[in-house]
Amino acid sequence: MISKQLAKMLNEQIGHELQASQQYLAISIYFHMKQLDGWGAFFRRQAAEERFHAMKILDFLISVDSRPIVPSVEGVSSDFKSDLDPVKASLDWERQVTKQIHDMADQAFKDKDHTSLQFLQWFISEQIEEENLMEKLVALVKSGINMFQAEPLLPTPEEDHEN
Fold it and tell me: Is the pLDDT of residue 108 over 90?
């Protein structure tokens, strides 16, 4: 069994991951509506990945006999002023998630909960990849490249986390 505080944090993280999934889906819509289907597909895959993260946490809570709670998700928007705005927002969200994961790892360490700490290590490694990928995309958009010409430079489903 994990501590009540860590269970609370993990349940909140389920909500954060589902919120991110919805926001990435909204970003996907933004790009699809601009006929930037490569960008739209990329962010749709990001949405699916965030949902996977939520389910991974949910399954972990079940496995340690702690009842998962699926919190409600706030509204999201697909309205952005520029193509850079959603990409920068994605980087900001990933940085926020990294902090949340680190806070949970700190709590697990404080609780001497090695099982949860081991579980969270996967997310710590994942966040390194997520932030790095979003930093590259921000740099790509900031370079001024035509967004249609940039589509072949986006990671494919197989490459999403190799960089």
Answer: yes
4-10, Cβ contacts within 8 angstroms, sequence gap of 24 or more? 5/107, 5/111, 6/104, 6/107, 6/108, 6/111, 6/113, 6/116, 7/61, 7/66, 9/100, 9/103, 9/104, 9/107, 10/57, 10/60, 10/61, 10/66, 10/104, 10/116
Output the pLDDT for position 163. 41
Q: How confident is the model at residue 24 (pLDDT cuts 50, 70, 90)?
A: very high
Show the domains of the chain with their CATH numbers: 4-142 (1.20.1260.10)
CA distance 153 to 42: 11
31-76 residue pLDDT tens: 999 999 999 999 999 999 999 999 999 999 999 999 999 988 887 8
The pairs formed by 81-86 with CB atoms below 8 angstroms and a separation of 24 or more are: 83/31, 83/34, 83/36, 83/39, 83/141, 83/147, 84/138, 84/141, 84/142, 86/27, 86/30, 86/31, 86/43
Report how far apart, in Å, the C-alpha atoms of 21 and of each of 64, 73, 87 are. Answer: 25, 10, 14
DSSP state for residue 157 in the 8-state scheme = T
